[in-house]
């Protein structure tokens, strides 16, 4: 079974849109998401365009701030601080990666935790690892929703996550652990990675290597979630970290690229923005 992230993302956005219409009646305005784009990287430009399109689709106010890659760190931090102070801004997202002269950690820390719709702020990360209420990072949140939608049982299963980045691998592993899977995290120094992967009931792949996972690395009947977004070296076509054609028949459920985790990440961003807005409004009303 191929799990369509596009379809599930559509359902999530429909739900957000309904809640936004209600929120406008109750609070007099829709949530406002501000996305900051530094530089002209084509992939970043396309991600930011997609986020803006989704935000408008669900009825948010959406602002994109574009700055040249020559912007100083100080100037960028000042923009964020002004947005932090602006009561009519509910979510702030800085598109990563940033130019080398800007400290990404500093930028992420400067965004107010309550406006951190990406879930990257250290206080949100700490809350996730301590099982306290937090904004869940969008991509891992989308992964769990895809598994749930496909009816994959997580509790008691063996999950293997390939990749240990702060934004995908690690939080995805933690969220699977919190759903009572037994989790192994593998990475570039893992010995016998193919064998480890082939033991997984749930295989999440987030390494950024085109078609890295082949059918010998997939347990028969496994659920395979492909996070990777790559270009095929030969054709330049978009592809995942999993060799889809090669693995499809071995997996019980599998996500395609494009149309799998990607749209889910954006849908979860819309959910997170609405959540930040509602939390603030409820707090203001108390
Ligand atoms: P990243 O920060 O570059 O991390 C890659 C991880 O993969 C690292 O932990 C690295 O191990 C591991 N790795 C690299 N080569 C490996 C190998 N040959 N064998 C085993 N592990 C290996 O990447 P990321 O930000 O997590 O992104 C991963 C992929 O997901 C990329 O293709 C990215 O474009 C995509 N992505 C998609 C979405 C979406 O919404 N669909 C969102 C975010 C990212 P070490 O830690 O040992 O270096």
Characterise this structure.
The protein is of the alpha/beta class and 286 residues long. Helix content is 43%, strand content 15%. The chain has 10 helices and 10 strands. The strands form 3 sheets. It has a 5-stranded parallel beta sheet. The protein has a 3-stranded parallel beta sheet with strand order 2-1-3, with helices on both faces. α7 links the parallel β4 and β5 (182-186). α1 packs parallel to α10, α2 (42-57) packs across α10 (261-285) and α6 packs across α7 (169-178). The protein binds NADP nicotinamide-adenine-dinucleotide phosphate. NADP nicotinamide-adenine-dinucleotide phosphate binds next to α10.
Sequence-ordered SSE layout with sheet pairings:
Elements: H1 5-27, E1 32-38, H2 42-57, E2 61-67, H3 73-85, E3 91-94, H4 104-110, H5 122-129, H6 138-149, E4 158-162, H7 169-178, E5 182-186, H8 193-197, E6 202-205, E7 223-226, E8 230-231, E9 238-239, H9 244-247, E10 253-254, H10 261-285
Parallel strand pairs: 1-2, 1-3, 4-5, 4-6, 6-7, 7-10
Antiparallel strand pairs: 8-9
Question: Descriptors for this entry?
Answer:
286 residues, alpha/beta, five-stranded parallel beta sheet, three-stranded parallel beta sheet, 10 helices, 15% strand, globular, binds NADP nicotinamide-adenine-dinucleotide phosphate
């Amino acid at each position: 079974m191929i799990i369509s992230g596009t379809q599930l993302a559509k359902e999530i956005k429909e739900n957000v849109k309904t809640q936004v219409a209600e929120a406008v009646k109750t609070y007099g305005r829709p949530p406002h998401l501000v996305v900051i784009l530094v530089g002209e990287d084509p992939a970043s430009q396309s991600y930011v365009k997609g986020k803006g399109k989704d935000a408008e689709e669900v009825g948010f106010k959406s602002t994109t701030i574009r700055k040249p890659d020559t912007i100083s760190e100080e100037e960028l931090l000042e923009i964020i601080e002004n947005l932090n102070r602006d009561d009519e801004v509910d979510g702030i997202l800085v598109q990563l990666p940033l130019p080398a002269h800007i400290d990404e950690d500093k930028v992420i820390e400067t965004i107010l935790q309550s406006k951190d719709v990406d879930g990257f702020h250290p206080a949100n990360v700490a809350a996730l690892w301590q099982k306290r209420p937090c904004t869940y990072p969008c991509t891992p949140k989308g992964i769990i929703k895809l598994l749930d939608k496909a009816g994959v049982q997580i509790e008691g299963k063996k999950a293997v996550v390939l990749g240990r980045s702060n934004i995908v691998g690690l939080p995805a592993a933690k969220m699977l652990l919190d759903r009572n899977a037994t989790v192994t995290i593998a990475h570039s120094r893992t010995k016998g990675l193919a064998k480890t992967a082939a033991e997984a009931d749930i295989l999440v792949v987030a390494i950024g290597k085109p078609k890295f996972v082949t059918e010998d690395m997939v347990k028969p009947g496994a659920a395979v979630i492909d996070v990777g977004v790559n270009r095929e070296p030969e054709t330049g076509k978009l592809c995942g970290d999993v060799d889809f054609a090669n693995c499809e028949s071995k997996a019980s459920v599998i996500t395609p690229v494009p149309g799998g985790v990607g749209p889910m990440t954006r849908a979860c961003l819309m959910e997170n923005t609405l959540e930040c807005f509602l939390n603030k409004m409820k707090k203001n009303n108390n």
